[in-house]
């Protein structure tokens, strides 16, 4: 079944600006002992995979980038483009990621709001040792997220798990 958002084009001025801003934030926050080319990235690519170019421009390697996609058609299309793609829900992927396989960057460019249940499941996944110190970007669809739950839950664990990112919350992206 197609997820809402799987069929939308994400190539637009506002989204492009947001994507560039987001990748700049990620690059700026790399730990001193890491360069972009050493980082393993998990991301929601979408059909157009527009993150890839932005990531490459900043030194991330396509070989170290793993797309996660719940929509089967989009996942198939990404694989046909040669993108390493896990077909499934990113929340499940976070929760069953091999603990010894460290992930450096997680881009959750969701096309939905984040309800309390999902927040808890994302939190449970990201609290695992393989994500400690990871740079995490979460993009919610404005108007659909549970703002109160977001502030009380995500805000508090972000300040613990990724303190540098909590200063970079932005509330006007597409
Ligand atoms: C907003 S789009 C990604 C856009 C892309 N990051 C860009 O900047 O152009 C989100 C994509 O992730 C997929 N998606 C949304 N929620 C998901 C989830 N929970 N697990 C896996 N894939 C999801 C959607 O089907 C869609 O293709």
Give an overview of the whole structure.
This protein is an alpha/beta fold and 174 residues long. It has one domain: Rossmann fold (3-Layer(aba) Sandwich). Helix content is 39%, strand content 12%. It has seven helices and five strands, in the order αβαβαβαβαβαα. A five-stranded parallel β-sheet has the order 3-2-1-4-5, covered by helices on one side. α5 packs parallel to α6. The two termini are 24 Å apart. The mean pLDDT is 85.
Topology readout:
Elements: H1 13-28, E1 41-43, H2 51-57, E2 65-69, H3 72-80, E3 85-87, H4 90-95, E4 105-109, H5 116-126, E5 135-139, H6 147-161, H7 163-166
Parallel strand pairs: 1-2, 1-4, 2-3, 4-5
Helix pairs in contact: 5-6
Bound molecules: S-adenosylmethionine (SAM).
General form: globular
Structural class by sheet pairing and helices: alpha/beta
Proportion of residues in helical segments: 25-40%
Could you say what the CATH architecture is? Answer: 3-Layer(aba) Sandwich
Instruction: Identify the CATH class.
Output: Alpha Beta
CATH homologous superfamily (4th level) name? Vaccinia Virus protein VP39
Overall tally of domains: 1
Named once each, the bound ligands are: S-adenosylmethionine
- Report how far the terminal alpha carbons are from each other: 24 Å
Rounded mean pLDDT is 85
What is the string of SSEs from the N terminus onward?
A: HEHEHEHEHEHH
**Largest sheet entry:** 5 strands, parallel
Total number of beta strands: 5
